[in-house]
Design brief:
2 domains, binds thiamine diphosphate, binds magnesium ion, 34% helix, 10 helices, binds adenosine-5'-diphosphate, Phosphoribosyl-aminoimidazole Synthetase, Chain A, domain 2
Length: 328
């Protein structure tokens, strides 16, 4: 199919989910009636970097879902609902029309499930499959946000859901040793799903904001790195006990099979796309009931050996673990 026809074909399957969109796909630019404050984030998914390039699990559907989910995760971490998404596709010749349409259809399904409107994008050819998704959410005012720099000394530090599942799922795909792990079919499927089809915690992010959380960040690179962003942005030190990190079922078995510490998969494996939050102790009960596990606290940063950032601890002693880094 020619570029124009391909675009027309997949745009025909996109729906508008709000009354903001004045001009959607088709003109030189999208036109949206703005809310009070725009919250915008962009994320890239590269086949071979974010997903294995030649694995039968990595279908066009998985690529589409994951690219939008990981972008929406940043809006979840800001505590705002999703608004519009803009999708730039770089397509290698090995991706035929059917693949591209399946990718966009999977995105549209997640868009429907999250109230997102795909309002525009771009199609290019290129040497590798790259999907860049820009998402915009709308807040009523600039205070109705979960920022990285809003942690306060004395806050508790918590995480939503369970961690390590994505790294374990990836290991099941790429590390032959992981296949020796004893897992029930359901547990194995849930680990693969966590890696291949993460769910952005949009409703939970908004709920945490309403419940009085101070700061939040989504866990893309792992607590070891992402908690450090909160600490540095806030000028404080997050102290986290790695043995309190909730681990997804099956993580321990995969960690044993690949010879790694299970807490390290949970702290540094990355891509669970859960949220890390800080909140004052008086809110801890209500926030825990919303699905948060407390893993540490926010301390003043003072002195050379207590710089702003994160310190991961085991039995009160610091560990040198680090999360994912693109240019290590
Ligand atoms: N090329 C760039 N130009 C401007 N800002 C950037 C660029 N790359 C990253 N940033 C900013 O740096 C911060 C961290 O980026 P990144 O690690 O991609 O964020 P996240 O983990 O939330 O997706 C973000 O606020 C992002 O907007
Ligand atoms: C094939 C493959 N190898 C390694 C990884 C691990 N990995 C790749 S990117 C990444 C971190 C998250 O991606 P990034 O682009 O840093 O997202 P952001 O922090 O910008 O949200 C991790 C853990 C992977 N997902 N797939
Ligand atoms: Mg990253």
């Amino acid at each position: 199919m020619a570029e124009r026809d391909l675009i027309s074909r997949f745009v025909a399957g996109l729906r508008t989910r709000d009354d903001r969109l004045l001009i959607g796909p088709g003109d030189d630019a999208a036109v949206v009636r703005a809310g009070a404050v725009a919250v915008t984030s962009t994320d890239t998914t590269v086949l071979g970097v974010h997903l294995p390039a030649d694995d039968p699990h990595v279908t066009p559907d998985v690529v589409g879902h994951r690219a939008l989910a990981t972008a929406l995760s940043d809006l979840a971490a800001m505590g705002v609902p999703a608004g519009e998404a803009y999708v730039a596709l770089t397509l290698p010749t090995s991706w035929d029309d059917g693949h591209v349409i399946a990718l966009v259809e999977a995105m549209e399904r997640l868009a429907a499930a999250t109230g997102t409107t795909i309002a525009g994008g771009d199609v290019s050819s290129g040497p590798a499959l790259v999907v860049t998704v820009t998402v915009v959410g709308w807040a009523d005012d600039e205070h109705a946000l979960l920022r990285r720099d809003a942690a306060r000394a004395g806050d508790r530090v918590g995480v939503t859901g369970q961690l390590g599942g994505s790294a374990a799922g990836l290991a099941l795909l790429v590390d032959p040793r992981a296949r020796t792990a004893t897992l029930t079919p359901n547990v194995r499927a849930a680990l693969l799903d966590r890696y291949l089809r993460p769910e952005p915690r949009l409703a939970l992010g908004q709920r945490l904001l309403r419940l009085g959380a101070h700061a939040a960040i989504d866990l893309s690179d792992g607590v070891a790195t992402d908690a450090g962003h909160v600490g540095r942005a806030s000028g404080l030190r997050l102290r986290i006990d790695v043995d309190r990190l909730p681990r997804q079922l099956g993580v321990d078995a995969v960690a044993a099979a690949v010879g790694r510490d299970p807490a390290q998969l949970a702290a540094a494996g990355g891509e669970d796309f859960e949220l890390l939050v800080t909140a004052p102790p008086e809110r801890a009960g209500a926030i825990a009931r919303a699905g948060v596990t407390w893993i540490g606290e926010v301390a003043e940063a003072a002195g050379d050996d207590a710089a702003p950032g994160v310190v991961l601890e085991r039995d009160g002693r610091p560990l040198g673990w680090a999360g994912f880094e693109h240019r290590a």
